Amino acid sequence: MTERVCRRLRIHGQVQGVGFRYALMDEAARLGLAGWVRNRRDGTLEAVAAGPADAVEALLQWSHRGPPSAVVSRVEVEPDDGTYDRFELRTTA
């Protein structure tokens, strides 16, 4: 059985107005992950991803690139302890 993990991501760069949230939701769904994504008022994007460790790691790697029109400067990752049953879009915080 694969270890389940939960990680909080803070993605910096040109990540708003480029379809990043929707692309991340699509990638999370493809990987079978639960959690959420939202824009932050400071211009970053925040997400929480929960599921099998290898799938979460794949999403983390994807988040360093994002969709074609995004320019990611850095991704901060920290452990999170949430439990989620689906992946959702949240309002800006």
SSE order and pairing:
Blueprint: E1 4-14, H1 20-31, E2 34-39, E3 45-52, H2 53-63, E4 71-79, E5 87-89
Helix pairs in contact: 1-2
Describe what you observe in this structure.
There is one protein chain. The protein has 93 residues and is of the alpha+beta class. The protein has one domain (6-83): Alpha-Beta Plaits, CATH 3.30.70. Helices cover 25% and strands 40% of the residues. It contains 2 helices and 5 strands; from the N terminus they run E-H-E-E-H-E-E. The protein has helices at 20-31, 53-63, and strands at residues 4-14, 34-39, 45-52, 71-79, 87-89. Strands 4-1-3-2-5 form a 5-stranded mixed beta sheet, covered by helices on one side. Helix 1 runs antiparallel to helix 2 (53-63). The N and C termini lie far apart (36 Å). The mean pLDDT is 96.
Give a quick precis of the structure:
This protein is of the alpha+beta class. It contains two helices and five strands, in the order E-H-E-E-H-E-E.
